[in-house]
Amino acid sequence: MILILLLSSFLSFAETTSTDEKVVGIFYMQPLFGHVHQSSVSTSASLTTIQCAHPVKVIESSKVSAYPEWAYVQVADYRGFILKQYLSEKKPDCFQGKYPKFFDNLNLDLSELYYWGRLYDQYIQGETRVQ
Amino acid sequence: MINTYRVKLAFSSFFLMLNLVASAQTSKLQEDKELELVNFSSVKKVLQKDGLSESAFQKKQQVAILKKEQINLDHLRYNYPPEDEMWGFISEYWLVKNAPILGWDFEKPDYGLDYSFKTTLQKMGFVQKKFKILLINNPVMVRAALPGSNGDIILLMSVPFIRALDLSKLEISLLFLEDYLRLEAGYFKNNVGTQKLKNLAGTSFQGAKPDMSILEELLKNYTNQINSKGYTFQQQFETTKKMDVFLKSQPELWNVYFHLLQKLNNYFKANVQYKDYVKLYPSPEMQIKWISPDEKVL
After folding, report:
1. What does pTM read for this prediction?
2. Which chain B residues are within 8 Å of A112, Cβ to Cβ?
3. Does B87 share its domain with B153?
């Protein structure tokens, strides 16, 4: 009986430790607004909209496949994808953080928040460098 | 026996009384000492010797600095954004407000424009320049360049227009380069900017409501500039001449640009749908004349 109990407790321990998920770290949203996507494609459905400086838990999991430029993230109860270029290790200096009273007076509605997030999905971005 | 007990009791009570009196005397002395300690003048020397008064002074100063910084931070919370940050914000706000009309939220093919435009800019010697391209699904609004935040630039281009003219990515990049030069020359900001923006940007509205008409006016001016006002002949002439100068160092690009202007000219003459384009960007026909090499008379 004791042996069975010991074996079952060992098995349950093994189950929790062998999980293939790893928290890479906490990152912060960089653009003014952005979406947590259902899949690693910018046209995929939005699970939720978050704003600049919102903390995001980046997860590494062998069970989840994504394009390399996308990060698998957890925001509150949602698990989805955000473009890596929009995540920062340090808390960014956001427009709404610097000018909160001005920003509050905009009274952005839900559709505007949604479109602002979509804007960053649709941008094709580039930067020239010294050759 | 009882007598000896009484004597012992008397002695012990006598000693007890003595102890109580003695302890009362010592507690009084301790209170006195405490009073002496509270007397600052008596400990001043000790504090000075330990450097405690100096550290207390420093702490006082730190608190004063922190309080001042807190007041400054509170004050900054009521600021209008400065002009350079305002432009990028308004450009995006205008795009968001006009999203259903412009139709930029749609699935589009990958034209490879980021690489193509980056290469074109680099060939012209423009380095450390950030750009954002937004393809729109609107046949009427053909193109525009908006100021972004921190000196970057937002370029808009209509996909129906690209398809109608069957533009190559190099041709699109040259149109973007034209837009980039126009924006860099400050024509857009001069045409759209208001006195209110100049007066209020970067100032504080603490104690009052912010004047949000600053945004309303600018949004209206953006729409007017992009859909109706466009650029003057003089501004177009200067832009075209700049393109001519920049592209002359790359003859193959100059040729593509020249043929692109011819292509636009022919298309706009044949299609009334784009009749407004030549009013906004006057005009491919004139641009061809401005950059055509002089004919030599033998």
Report:
1. 0.79
2. 96-97
3. yes
